[in-house]
From TrEMBL:
It catalyses: N(6)-methyl-AMP + H2O + H(+) = IMP + methylamine. Residues 14-210 form the Adenosine deaminase domain. Transmembrane segments: none annotated. The lineage of its organism: Eukaryota, Metazoa, Chordata, Craniata, Vertebrata. This is MGC80849 protein. The keyword Zinc-finger does not apply. It comes from Xenopus laevis. Belongs to the metallo-dependent hydrolases superfamily. Adenosine and AMP deaminases family. Its cofactor is Zn(2+).
Length: 217
């Protein structure tokens, strides 16, 4: 099997995607829509994209995420991104998807709680529109925020775990692996587990070579 036929076969094959970064799954088409909304930022494709075959250092990747955060700073942006990402995974034959993202307060006034609400709203709207895909969400803890921010995120996850109708599955420890120490997060993560939340440990990822250790347990 080769060429178009193979592509079609793999696209139609039912798949699960257990580790999708919301802001790392934005397509070129969605990025164009976001850039058009914020022309004053003067952001170009090559600042937000890693094309096939390209390599970036870990530092460059985190720099890129900073720029992506700038163009996804309102509820409207987050809703657009969530829905587009889900639709594109569905079009690619994914039947079960776990999205993970770090709740953010943004300069545009979005709170961490509103960020999570907006992602969950996007998931709900896709379901109402009849997309053939089940989606769950993991709130990511950025280790750069330290244990205090981690505790806040755990609290947020606990609140939504109870109220989101099983859309919130758990937490994902993530962020720059060169910052801080994993053991600093044992206490909040342990508390999360006691509340019934699942945990993913996201230890290291480099450029487009994926070295993630992401285990849900
Ligand atoms: Zn990852």
């Amino acid at each position: 099997m080769a060429g178009e036929g193979a592509l079609q076969f793999y696209r139609e094959l039912p798949k699960v995607e257990l580790h999708a970064h919301l802001n790392g799954s934005i397509s070129t088409a969605t990025m164009k829509k976001l850039m058009a909304r914020k022309p004053h930022l003067d952001i170009h494709n090559d600042m937000t994209m890693i094309n096939k075959g390209q390599k970036r250092t870990l530092e460059e990747c985190f720099q890129m995420f900073k720029i992506i955060h700038q163009i996804t700073d309102t509820a409207e942006d987050i809703l657009l991104v969530t829905k587009d990402v889900i639709k594109e995974f569905a079009a690619d034959g994914v039947k079960y998807l776990e999205l993970r993202s770090t709740p953010r307060d943004t300069p545009a006034g979005l709170t961490k709680r509103a960020y999570v609400e907006t992602v969950l709203e996007g998931i709900k709207q896709c379901k109402e529109e009849g997309l053939d895909i089940d989606v769950g969400f993991l709130l990511a803890i950025d280790r750069r925020g330290g244990p205090t921010a981690a505790k806040e995120t755990v609290k947020l996850a606990e609140d939504f775990f109870c109220s989101s109708n099983e859309l919130v599955l758990g937490l994902d420890l993530s962020g720059d692996p060169t910052v801080g120490h994993g053991k600093d997060f044992m206490e909040p993560l342990d508390k999360a587990r006691q509340s019934g939340l699942k945990l993913a440990l996201h230890l290291s990822e480099v450029s487009n070579t994926n070295f993630t250790v992401s285990l849900l347990f």
